[in-house]
Each structure stands twice: as structure tokens, then as C-alpha cells.
Amino acid sequence: QVQLVESGGGWVQAGGSLRLSCVASGSTSDVDAMGWYRLAPGKERELVAALSTIGNAYYVDSVKGRFTISSDNGKNAIYLQMNSLKPEDTAMYHCAAFDSKKDPTAILGWGQGTQVTVSS
To answer: What is the average pLDDT across 20-46?
Structure first.
């Protein structure tokens, strides 16, 4: 099992920036990608960004050009730099660890979440 601990959420005005961090521990040998989901009231869970250990990145269309996902493999950590934040980015952001060798991709770990609130 993979344990994930997030940090970095908070409150910011529209146009501002936040940086989320996630550190993985435990059984990480099968993890080949990590990413960020967000959950907002009344909306479906959404994969915001993901990054594989070989550097392939995914972004949902709504954050392209504003968010950047990066990693520090030596620290088993990923980061989400969020710029030009909008009120619609308000959500609980959860870090996830994946094993994409499974079909379908397996979620090996799920963080407790960090709240991001963007005011207009």
C-alpha cells in the first residue's frame, strides 16, 4: 500500500497561485505515475494532471497553460504549480499513485486531500 501526504492548499484570490506537494511512502515499487484529482461539490471526480516516471504528462483541457506538474523522484514527491487560478478551480485536491501496467490502470494510493479555494 502506498501512503500519500499532500500539502499546500489554501485560499487565494482569482489570478493568484498555489503550489501543491505530495510525498509518497510505503510500497512504491509498482508506482509508475502519480497525479492529482479534484473533487468539487456537485461535480464528478476529475483527473487534473498526471506525470509518469518517464516524464509523460497529462493535463485536463481546463488547466492547460495554467498548471504544471513536476516531480522529484529522489523524494518520491510530485508537485502541482497552479497559476492564474479561477473560482472554478475551487475543490478538494487529492494526490494519487498509479500502476499503469495494470489494465485498467490501478490506483495504488489516495491522499487525504488538500482544499483549494479561489475567490472572485
So the answer is: 95
